[in-house]
Amino acid sequence: MITEMLTRWQTTPADWQHELRQAIRDPMQLLQLLDLSPSQLAQPLVLKPGFALRVPRSYVARMRKGDPDDPLLRQVLPVTEEQRQLPTFNLDPTGDKLAEKVPNLLAKYSGRVLLIVTGACAIHCRYCFRQHYNYSATSSLLAAVEFIRADSSIGEVILSGGDPLTWTDNRLAELFHQLAQIPHLQRLRLHTRLPIVLPQRVTHELLNGLTQTRLQPIMVVHTNHANEIDESVGYGLQRLVAAGVTVLNQSVLLRGVNDNAAHLINLSEMLFNYRVLPYYLHRLDRVQGSTHFEVSKAAALHLLEQMRIALPGYLVPRLVQEVAGMAYKQPIL
Ligand SMILES: *Cc1c(COP(=O)(O)O)cnc(C)c1O
Ligand code: SF4
């Protein structure tokens, strides 16, 4: 069945770059595509010039038409609730800027560092904890690569952003090559939402780049709801796994999107249909503009309990929250 799909669907770099440029940026156009009118929304739309609507068309195609509460729509539609301010919600909830040792490199945890390779994303998730991040003036990774070279305790590099897969395959391959020349590095991890929101991104060239480096490739994708995984997403995930990439998923627990045990259980099962293991279920990082997505700790623990009852242990994600200054992401207890 896989070979049949392979011949049926060959994707080229031009395809995903075209799709990226064609992303919907106008809320009214998005509503129109979904047969919705603004009066059907529980909340009025809001314009957010600094972090405007952005959503790829193939992701829109996975939304239910005529449903203002669709879990995918809720993740991307800017509504007035975002203007609500609370003192506990701020611009940099995870203390990222303090952890930036040299431009574009965050060092928080032992043995691994995170590279902010870009501020660009294919989609703008309304709850994104880096939506106000003050990206470095330079996009150069020179100092970052030198930092890694000089510290032999670093065994793993995590490419993040923004979304590292907005880079072209050539540019990524060049970076992989540079990193592979650092003898103490063992693992190369990518944190990305592109294989989910723009599945054409999983090109042959990307698979080659990831598997032709001596570094062990890991990809942590970001899915919050089983409706995000259609046949083409599943096919991309399967190809990554078949190529030898360890693929894990992280989700953010979001009110009105996935704060439902049946949905979370379904997501774990669906991921594993494509051999992807659930890794983290994050409690929301308290970033300004996201108050309406928060799920209480008690509700989160209750959901986790229901997942534990229904699923084998390996399909239960770790429920965590990032606390600035701590040595690892904190389990919710
Ligand atoms: C989340 C994060 C990591 C990765 O943590 P793991 O627990 O290994 O997944 C690394 N660096 C930074 C700065 C992070 O925010
Ligand atoms: S894809 Fe990730 S980094 Fe980009 S907006 Fe969404 S949550 Fe933020």
Describe the structure.
One of its GO terms (molecular function) is metal ion binding. The chain is α/β, with parallel strands linked by helices. It folds into 2 domains: 14-83, no CATH class; 96-331, Alpha-Beta Barrel (TIM Barrel), CATH 3.20.20. The protein has 12 helices and 10 strands. A 10-stranded mixed sheet has the order 1-2-3-4-5-6-7-8-9-10. Helix 11 (261-273) links the parallel strand 7 and strand 8 (277-282). The termini are far apart.
Which residues form runs of ≥5 with pLDDT under 50? none
Largest sheet: 10 strands, mixed
Tally of structural domains: 2
Q: Please tell me the overall pLDDT.
A: 95
Order of helices and strands: HHHHHEEEHEHEHHEHEHEHEE
Summarize the amount of helix as a percent range: 25-40%
Number of helices: 12
Principal-axis shape = globular
Distance between the termini: 43 Å
Q: Under the CATH scheme, which class of the largest domain?
A: Alpha Beta
List the helices and strands and how they pair.
Blueprint: H1 2-8, H2 13-21, H3 27-33, H4 57-60, H5 71-76, E1 100-102, E2 105-109, E3 112-116, H6 142-150, E4 156-160, H7 169-180, E5 187-192, H8 194-197, H9 204-211, E6 216-222, H10 231-243, E7 246-252, H11 261-273, E8 277-282, H12 297-310, E9 318-321, E10 330-331
Parallel strand pairs: 3-4, 4-5, 5-6, 6-7, 7-8, 8-9
Antiparallel strand pairs: 1-2, 2-3, 9-10
Helix pairs in contact: 7-9, 11-12
This protein binds pyridoxal-5'-phosphate and iron/sulfur cluster.
Domain Radical SAM core: 107-315
Protein name: L-lysine 2,3-aminomutase
Cofactor: [4Fe-4S] cluster; pyridoxal 5'-phosphate
